[in-house]
Amino acid sequence: MDYAASLQMALPEVILSLGSLVLLMIAAYVGDKSTRAIGWLAVGLFAAASLSLLGPAGHGGEAFYGLYRADAFAAFAKLLIYIAAAVSIIIAPGFFKDGALRAEYPVLIVLAAVGMGMMVSAADLLTLYVGLELNSLAAYVLASFMRRDTRSAEAGLKYFVLGALASGILLYGITLLYGFSGTTMFEGIAVAMKDGLSNGELFGLVFVLAGLAFKISAVPFHMWTPDVYEGAPTPVTTFFASAPKVAAIALTVRVAVEAMGPGSDAWRQIVIFAALASIVLGAVAAIGQTNIKRLLAYSSINNVGFALIGLAAGTEEGVASVMTYMAIYVAMTLGSFLCVLQMRDRDGNHVETISSLAGLSSTRPALAAALATFMFSLAGIPPLLGFWAKFLVFDAAVAAGMWPLAAIGIAASVIGAFYYLKIIKTMYFDEPAPAYAPSESIVENGLIAISALFVSPLGYFLIPALGVATMNAARALF
Predict the structure, then answer these.
(1) pTM over 0.85
(2) What is the secondary structure of 360-422 as a DSSP string?
(3) What gap in Å lies between CA 307 and CA 279, rounded to an integer?
């Protein structure tokens, strides 16, 4: 094996790993007064890692004896991950006041991104597990980052306990697949499944998908999501709802298509159930929420269900629709949480109740318009880009002959529209609540504007380029 060539293919992870060690040393020697500098250096690392995807890291093939794969699929997912992670670092200083933001925050996000990069490039079950655990260990600390805040500490503990359970389930599934197929390589598992699924391989498949369903917060492994999203600091919740979600969905797609492709009749049933259950539960459970972060948590579960419809199709078009959905989902999610960050009372304290949005259209019309854009887009209402994302996954399902699944998904999406429209009704038609403090952050306002423009009808100009990129990504798996 040519180690130089392998390291070139893994260049994004090399850049982020070495960079995180340097940032950690700066944090250790300079202390928390270097936090802002470390944050911008971390953003620079993500920019460098993104640029490295233009070389062998984006299309080099297999590395490290086939354990790692650098292809267009991984490159597309990594670009989304790095954008979401960078935004989560940039917005943090506006949330953490009075020295609460410590220098470890950007370092933890960089380390989590290293794990996510390994997840989406995994070609072996052990590479998958190592990447997933590296991401998870950083995420547990991030969830409880405000350790003197009861809600944050509780969120970290819940995430840790349930995450450990999910890791055990996943590891047991990996053990079964290895025991009955004789290999942990995705290609080897696919060859073993071509002769038909044995009972051991079937149980292994079920346990692996159950472990991955926890990471994407699909029903019935979603129970941690609302509590963790509500309790974690808002920039951390922004991170959880975007970057790790992309990594986990991409990993699930790769495992299903590359490792378990011959067993598609078995895993498709699991994916269809998880998709429909996530869509329905995410929509129904969100209706009674009074906290905006809990509502967005159920919205995240709901959106995962729609993405899984594309995976259930099991075709190139289906995989391409999933990746398009995740690209648009990241923009909608980042925009929504950026708006949540602007919900501050006159004293600068963060407010999370939906009722506090009442009359926002008269006190902060620009913020109300942006949040309404994201809510309409998440609901899938044309002509916003969220409609196009849903259309693609339904179209892929119909093309694969799964029109009943598409029909149920379309019907269930109407339920989800209710709670998005409830927020818009609160902002535009309810009696005004006390006005929020004016926003002083040019960065936050600029990022909201960029996200809103992306999901607006102007975003349709990007569809040809996005379609080419996602189809190239999908073809890399087939």
Answers:
(1) yes
(2) HHHHSHHHHHHHHHHHHHHHT-TTSHHHHHHHHHHHHHHHTT-HHHHHHHHHHHHHHHHHHHH
(3) 10
